Amino acid sequence: MSTFVRRAVAVAALGAAVVTTLSACGSSKKSSASPSRSASATSNTRTVEVAITSDGCKPAQSSYDAGPLTFSVKNTDATAVNEIELLSGERIVGEKENLPAGFSGSFALSLPPGEYTLYCPGATTEKTTLKIIGTAATASASSDTSQLLAQGTKQYADYVNSQVSELIAAVKPLDTALKTTDLTAAQNAYKQARKYYERIEPVAESFTNGSDNLDSDIDARQDDVPANQWTGFHRIEKGLFQDNSLSGLAGYGDGLLANVAKLQTLTAGLAYQPAELANGAVDLLDEVSKTKITGEEERYSHIDLLDFSANVEGSEQAFACLEPALEKIDPTLTATITSAFNALDAALDKYRSNSDASGFVLYSTLTDADKTALSQLVQAVDEPLSTVASKVVTS
Amino acid sequence: MTDAPAPRPSDSSPTRRGFLGAALGAAGVVAAGGAGFGIAKATESTPSPAAAKVAPSEVAFYGVHQAGIATPAQDRLAFAAFDVTARDLRALQAMLGSWAAAAARMSTGQLIGPTETAPQAPPVDTGEALGLAPGNLTITVGFGPSLFDDRFGLAAKRPGALAPIPTLPGDALDPSRSGGDVGVQACSDDPQVAFHVIRNFARIARGTAVMRWSQLGFGRTSSTSTTQATPRNLMGFKDGTNNIKAEDTAVMNDFVWVGEETDQPWMKDGSYLVTRRIRMLIETWDADYIADQQRVFGRFKDTGAPLSGRNEFDRVDLDASANGQPVIPADAHIRLAAPGNNNGQKILRRGYSYTDGNDPTTGQLDAGLFFIAYQKDPRRQFIPIQTRLGGNDALNEYIKHVGSALFAVPPGLSGPGDWFGKALFA
């Protein structure tokens, strides 16, 4: 199930949908090297030594002066603890992961005065108060992060709106082609339209209200629904690629166009929470693992790699919208995810081809070893990505 | 161990150590059934304080040697080999550190971390072993020859004894069931507890290492302690009556534990692990007549006695003859495997029966022995022994070696903060 929970009913039918930016947050693809935080590590940086034991995480002092601080953390023997977080209220402002017993690490940030909490989940005493005193030398790190998150969610909304617009623009020629006698043109139009939907599928999935299941109406596969209710992309795919016939498909084309228009009505003007972006990014990769790796999604056309790549792009976009804020909260995690995405992109690029209108070789040509390698690369992103939502919760 | 589970509902992993285990002295623990601990004690010169509190159904994780070698063989196995995909040394080290911390906790029946850290975060532990007793869980980790290539600059640290196993007579190895950079053996009397280890290790490894192959074993085929009866393999025979028993400290030191003689100090008190997936041609075997089955092994099927004797533990008399023929045939399994025919060499066998359903092409059962052996130096032990067996053993008509792996198992961990191979990377 989708993690997007609709709170507000969408507003105007058009509104923000005029946005045409394809890439609202900029791709994270090429920025593998995370900007060094040494900028903040000026000569007046002080070090907060933190010792993690099974009892808890204890700073050397209970209070420090405001300004640039480097947290130098050593886990001596706490087998249940693998990370430390610095919280302001319930929000993470800094953290270090992958710190099992016997390991050390550090993170740096500039802190305004206030009461913070060192949180080491798994210890006997998980939370220890840390006081930052004096006057703020720089702008509040936490308000910076909040602003970046707010900006990211707005950009993601723009991205969703742009993809829905593109989807409508691509379904129209498909609908038209289904009313002609040119099978190849219709097949190509089908392949052109798919990616816009796959990039934002979790948003569409969130509109499930009793029998009104928009994702199902648009994207159900054969046997997902009773035969007499089967409609949408994959019903058209079966006609075009298995029956090799346009016969009887015109009605499905009209229905699909109506449903994507409805999607636009529902998504226009929506606002998103940062955690929704993070969970949506994970959902997209789960989609890959569930139905693309297995070749079930496009079982007649075998253009699963197109959907695969669109799911990954959608996931990267959602992540990219969170990246500036996450970079402040946990630069190591940001770098890990970015580099895992890059490895996945590089592997997918190897299958790009002009031999098919989808832009990829057909999935049926992949060996089991190819699929295993792709699957493992997806999991390598999925696992660290699944920890992002809890770090960008704004409260 | 100093880390008690945190007092909160989300980490309610019951600690089965209880006050009883803590209160009992070492002798009491042995009496209470903690045979694994008793054996660890027998071979340890300096037991770590962490090993001082062990309850029934728990085997001490920390100690001079890794648990799972001298430990009396548990009923179930989950084994996995991993290939390291990361090129970042720190990532590999952190994975081994996280494995060690998780292993220490799982060995005492605790969750590897809290279920709830934040509502939006997945649980640290996958949860399926919550509430289950550890069942003498042991987790044993070793490094394959391939880890010592140029990726992590470890080439100079590769022990001579970790030379890859050459192709042996009769090998029909599937590369996808062989080798691996890191091997993990999880043994428990509860299969779900053993599987939980492999699953959580694989999860911790994501992004750093991928599973190359894995193997479940449903029944032990070896006894490694005088307290255990010899089990039967899937051919219905007792194979391993004369296995090394952990109580025999001198034999353990001579044949299993790496000593001062090693060319790599980081391996001292470790051991070398050989695994072989040995497929049994069950249908053919089942059609063989009993006299021939007994000649193949050199033992009577029901009693397990050698053909030269009456009772299971009677001495194997390789010289006995009747009507001018050796009683134990020249190609019988026990004759070829006997230390007397292998320069006196022995190995500690710790294998498990397996089945992976049936072979889709032939419809025959895909079942057999997942052979596990620990030794001081495979070049003098497993390799020459298997060379003999692979060339001449009458059993070869009914078995096929389809998978093979070798791992250098470093010594035990001293306590929390130590991790698998810490000395290797030092």
Task: Please characterize this protein's 3D structure.
The complex is a heterodimer of chains A (395) and B (426). In chain A, the strands form three sheets. A five-stranded mixed sheet of chain A has the order 3-9-8-5-6. Chain A has a four-stranded mixed sheet with strand order 2-1-4-7, with no helix packed on it. Chain A contains ten helices and eleven strands. In chain A, helix 2 (183-199) runs antiparallel to helix 5. Chain A is elongated. By secondary structure, chain A is of the alpha+beta class. Chain A has a domain at 40-139: Immunoglobulin-like (Sandwich). Chain B has 426 residues and is of the alpha+beta class. Chain B has one domain (66-426). In chain B, the strands form three sheets. In chain B, strands 5, 6, 9, 10, 11 and 12 form a six-stranded antiparallel sheet that branches. Chain B has a four-stranded antiparallel sheet with strand order 2-3-1-4, covered by helices on one side. A two-stranded antiparallel sheet of chain B has the order 7-8.
List the uncertain runs of chain A: 5-22, 28-43
Average pLDDT of chain A: 86
Largest sheet of chain A: 5 strands, mixed
* Total of DSSP H or I helical runs spanning 4+ residues of chain A: 10
Structural classification of chain B:
alpha+beta
Largest interface: A-B, 40 and 42 residues
Output the strand order for the largest sheet of chain A. Answer: 3-9-8-5-6
The value of Rg of chain A in angstroms is 24 Å
In the CATH hierarchy, the third-tier topology of the domain at 40-139 in chain A is known as: Immunoglobulin-like
Globally, the shape of chain A reads elongated
